[in-house]
């Protein structure tokens, strides 16, 4: 039996262990690669681009679609043109006919305005002339009454002077008759003249009183006429009726013009792109009638800016805003893309997860939504699924 040298034993042991260690190291590397390749992500997310559905606010007919499917559009670009004028509404021709009628009525009223103004001005002048004439007539009556009073006063004074002379003649005649120088007949004649003149003076004084009363009445009538100002509408007031009629027609004209302008706008109502993006859907074509709120086109955001994911029960309390996560884009190991990002928003309630992210297509799942900023380097496509890992090992 061959004896083993105890001094060579460690060397021989190392020679036997070295292949074993190499084999174990290779096995660990293979296991690591296989585990990395077949690793299941903690959470699956989906690239989400903003999508806007373009719809009309009222029932309309689609007159033109100016974009093609998958065409890139810019914010404010015209996508489609609608005609929101319904068939049971008045046509533009009917409104134009009403407007022509209103304009003709305005012209007719305006044509009446000048002759009416001339006629009213002439009537006003006639009234003024008549009033001036009547006022002059009252003034003449007053002056005539005053002249009559002056005439009667002058007559009375003249007769009184004559009466005084006759009184002297009667006294002289009485003296001469007493002296038998003058015949009694002459005395009687003088007395008769004296008596007649005295009676005339009394009658004239009575006429004077009547003349004074007449003067007072004439003055009263004149003053009453002057104070009484009969209402005669001015020319402007009389023409106000025609002006108001014209104003009514002008307002009606403005309403018709506004309706026609609104109809022109409604007949060519443009739907514009709310953002930069791509036309992802065209749901209606030209000449089709669309109801209020019914989508016509869909514009999808051209660049993906966020990823939506849903945290299960074990992750709900872990996901926080600002949290750093890893995004893994699926593919063969050489093509696996891993980028770092952060959580921008965490939803307040639990929602049903979209069917694209269900582990079992037949079993609905629920989770708390959260958004992750999508790195531009990944160039994700809307709807693409992305793996999401946290820095620490978490089990779902």
Structure description:
The radius of gyration is 62 Å and the shape is rod-shaped. A hairpin with a 7-residue loop joins β11 (324-329) and β12 (337-346). Helix content is 49%, strand content 21%. The longest helix has 87 residues, at 92-178. By secondary structure, the chain is an alpha+beta fold. The chain has helices at residues 9-37, 92-178, 184-227, 235-267; strands spanning 43-48, 51-55, 60-65, 72-73, 78-83, 269-272, 277-282, 289-290, 295-301, 306-311, 324-329, 337-346, 351-352, 366-373, 385-390. Mean pLDDT is 79; it is low at 392-396. Among the domains are: 55-89 and 267-298, Beta Barrel (OB fold (Dihydrolipoamide Acetyltransferase, E2P)); 92-248, Helix Hairpins, CATH 1.10.287. The protein has a 6-stranded antiparallel beta barrel. A 4-stranded antiparallel sheet has the order 2-9-7-4, with no helix packed on it.
Which shape, going by the Cα principal axes?
rod-shaped
Broad CATH class of the domain at 92-248: Mainly Alpha
Low-confidence regions = 392-396
Specify the helix fraction band. Answer: 40-55%
| CATH topology group of the domain at 92-248 | Helix Hairpins
| Rg estimate, integer Å | 62 Å
Number of helices: 4
Strand order of the largest sheet: 1-10-14-12-11-15
- End-to-end separation in angstroms reads 63 Å
Return the structural class: alpha+beta
Proportion of strand residues: 15-25%
How many beta-strand runs? 15
Q: How does CATH name the architecture of the domain at 92-248?
A: Orthogonal Bundle
Largest sheet: 6 strands, antiparallel, barrel
Order of helices and strands: HEEEEEHHHEEEEEEEEEE
User: How confident is the prediction overall: mean pLDDT?
Assistant: 79
